[in-house]
Amino acid sequence: MMPRAYVPQALARQPWQVIIPLSLLTIFGGAVLYSAAGGRLQPWAAMHVIRFFGFLVMAMLLARVPQDWFKRIALPGYVVLCGLLVLVELIGRIGGGSQRWLNLGFMTLQPSELMKPGIVLVLAWFYAMLPMNEIRGWRAIVPPIVILLIPAGLVMLQPDLGTALAISFGALVMMFIAGLPLWLFVSGGIGASIAAPIMFFFVMHDYQRKRVLVFLDPESDPLGSGYHITQSKIAIGSGGMFGKGFGNGSQSHLDYLPEAHTDFVFATMAEEWGMIGGLFVLAVFTIVLYWGLKVAMRAPDRFSRLLAAGMVTTIFFYVCINMMMVMGLAPVVGIPLPFLSHGGSSMMTNMICVGTIMAVDRWSRRAPGGLG
Q1: How far is CA 242 from the centre of its chain?
Q2: What residues have CB less than 8 Å from 20, skipping those under 6 apart?
């Protein structure tokens, strides 16, 4: 092994204990996408791996950004993202019945994905600026709710319930970590329980209501709204302990499993790699989330702590909801699985989260009493 003295400091200080498992997971995801495409690198597998390593360089550069720059860009970045969400409503590309994308020529951007880390950054900045003696007053509650409702409302118009829930979840976790009183969340939960039936009957679109009903009773429409989750369960269950073998997944290859390369990529993987493949995926996500939580806990100040914890929460929401969805434990809401699902905007969002946590880790090492 090459002595540490011969390794450039810029490389030696990278969190390789996370980068290496994430790289292996992404390459594994590329193999799953290769199989889902019938043994072809195009259109998914090659771009999936290339994007990851491209965004990994971006994350490493992001990790070197000073803390002051993050604070300066928080509010302007939030305003720009809200503007992009408005542009989506005006000129956005329609796909799958939803208007969620902007065609930039060189790539198709989904601004709502970028709002997930964006809402975390702006709220971390807000609560870091707010005096601690006002954390239980209206200034700690009303402005953040307004900051949340604007993008969440714009995303709901697309319509994209899953992303709106992800943005809301990230914002609510930030409020909780910031120290808002517990009664606020209890009363909010009660209010949500009251509002849920109203939203179900008067706000949700027909296909969203069907997803909820199918979640409660998947067999009620096995060839219609329940088709996705039924085929997903069949794929996961048929994989058994060791799977059917690489390239031998019948559900995806015979087109029984819809969205086999995006939302239901975990089912595609589980059919061919079985429970062993699933445990590998869970192990990597556990490593990433544990590392992120450690970084948040030793962060040098309030802003850094909130920022790292919020980014960890964003990744956790992706993983948790997608896996619950494909196993029939949550309604189908269109949340991709990080580092396995095909999608440039999703990959960019998750690597922004990773790069931001890396930045907080670097700030901690440079703080007085840090590791250097």
Answers
A1: 28
A2: none
Residues 341, 113, 99: CA angle, nearest 5 degrees: 95
Residues 6 or more apart from 11 whose CB is under 8 A from it? none
Give me the pLDDT at residue 112, please: 87
pTM: 0.88
Q: Are 265 and 340 in contact (CB under 8 A)?
A: yes
Residues counted in the chain: 372
204 three-state secondary structure: coil
H-helix or E-strand spanning residue 78: helix 67-91
The contacts of residue 214 (CB under 8 Å, 6+ apart) are: 220, 221, 225, 226, 229, 331, 332
The pLDDT assigned to 2 comes to 45
The Cα 10–Cα 14 span in angstroms is 7
Do the beta carbons of residue 226 and residue 214 sit within 8 Å?
Answer: yes
**Whole-Å CA distances, 56 to 43, 152, 260, 307, 354:** 21, 28, 25, 19, 9
Q: What is the pLDDT of residues 298-309, one digit of tens each?
A: 998 999 999 999
d(C-alpha 124, C-alpha 151), whole Å:
16
List the domain boundaries for the chain.
22-364
Dist. CA 334–CA 258, nearest whole Å: 12
Q: What is the pLDDT of residue 212?
A: 74
Q: Supply the pLDDT for residue 222.
A: 67
The sign of the dihedral angle between the CA atoms of 111, 116, 119, 120 is negative
Token representation of residue 186: 């209890």
Spans of the chain below 70 pLDDT: 1-8, 10, 12, 92-100, 104-107, 203, 208, 218-225, 367-372
Give strand ranges (E) for the chain. 93-95, 98-103, 108-109
Q: Is 238 exposed, middle or buried (0-12, 13-18, 19+ CB in 10 A)?
A: middle
C-alpha 321/C-alpha 334 separation (Å) is 9
Of the candidates 221, 234, 139, the one whose C-alpha atom is nearest the C-alpha of residue 178 is 139
Q: What is the 3-state secondary structure (H, E, C) of 316-342?
A: HHHHHHHHHHHCCCCCCCCCCCCCCCC
Classify 93 as helix, strand or coil. strand
